[in-house]
């Protein structure tokens, strides 16, 4: 696990100082070592030896040593024929791939997956990504061909951001690294801001910064150093073909294999344990796989507010499995004290991620560098209320599909205007549904969204908004059945843009690598092939049956409760000063491209009980993010 930064150009050059600034901003991602390849100079690993001047190829890496912690695994790494790699992630089947490559005549100098990825590229070219099982984002630079090849894993577990300048392409593991290097301008992207206000996260491929893009999951980027535009190509798409397999047994087999692969490490591996079915399943299989004398360390957070805390269930599961368990009770004062560091850790603004920040910090302070998480199960096995809620809303409004497009817009605008005189009616939401070209997408946003189109216009002084429902409809092919369409939206929008992004940012800020067994490619593809009737209506019955011999019934039979911070209480009480500091600062709100009076209306609506806590919190986060990073 690492952080990467680089620039490959042809008509343009970038200074070594810019590269160094970009690398320094990634120190938390890789505190163990660093290296920089400079064209015409070679690999530099000592700051006093950094050359001066500008260069057309710069490849940097900050290393968090997990596999082969010796210097043999340091990056950038190269081959004899001039291929250089900077790499972030873990390819869990690297041992098997290494043996295949050895059979083809390749030799290895380290026990790292980085070297396997590099030599797989030598052997298979751009098709190498088809052989990798894991999470990754990497760049290979072929110095002979003067070509850059980049790739990102199938689910987007590891981040990859880039910006195409007139004379080259710059890339990094974090948007803020591109800002700190001076490669990207500190200018908010209006589309990114609008997306954040809609969802509470910035929908890819846009980012919060103008000119910076996110490489889509399951995609590659090739840049020929001849002045042509970078070429992006998808190598993976989700499939929902149904299977005839015996579901519970096959799921157990694949999950066990996935956990086993993710235990490969030369440093201790722990786990997040909330006491829910997903994390309990992961930890139970860790204990089953590990040697009997292994010390499995688990971590959870809870709250003094009992209605929100799952600490009791986590401790019950830890006692059952006899893990070394550490829990932390997080208070509003803790959030207030840590808020500057939480915002600093956010590569892009998000209304979520605070929980991951605290549990990651807890694990890291205990000496853990790798932790397993149950993330991904709800999206694959239909564990969210969203699956039922979207379907119900869509059935209400599917008649709109027969309404001509030329009538929807005027009708929506009329409802919106009428709504100004009916403040207690949900007319803004009705107007969005009427205007939408995708009733499916509109129904999904009603379940997952924050601010309506009218609210966003008021907040941004009438700035142009995006029809996100149409984007969702196109992305997830709503002509399929509703449940599978929701699964696709949860996986490619909510999970990739929020859960995975937040998990990566918050954990790497603590120099902690988080691995997600449920998102193993083979396991995920099988889970998606399970017929809907075997996944709906019984809160992940297939998973419960798969782990019933290792997870007690007190966990499997418990009604699912989402992990929620008591922010609705805190923002009205202990965290009121945080709200005051933001909502009374007109200059800060305006820097965040927000209209102060409209923002204060949001706060008032929250205090009146008309809005959930996420809406005012979104304004706090966006404003604080701008204050910290711009």
CATH arch. level architecture of the largest domain: 4-Layer Sandwich
Give the total of beta strands.
20
Q: What would you call the structural class?
A: alpha+beta
Q: What fold name goes in the CATH topology slot of the largest domain?
A: Glutamine Phosphoribosylpyrophosphate, subunit 1, domain 1
Principal-axes geometry comes out as: globular
What is the domain tally?
A: 3
What is the count of helical runs?
Answer: 26
Return the CATH class of the largest domain: Alpha Beta
Q: How much strand content do the residues show? A: 15-25%
Q: Between the first and last Cα atoms, what is the distance in angstroms? A: 27 Å
Kindly provide the radius of gyration, computed on alpha-carbon positions and rounded to a whole number of angstroms: 24 Å
Strand order of the largest sheet: 4-3-6-1-12-11-13
Please outline the major beta sheet.
7 strands, antiparallel
Low-confidence stretches: 421-425
- What is the CATH homologous superfamily assignment of the largest domain? Aminohydrolase, N-terminal nucleophile (Ntn) domain
Helix content: 40-55%
| Mean of all residue-level pLDDT scores | 92
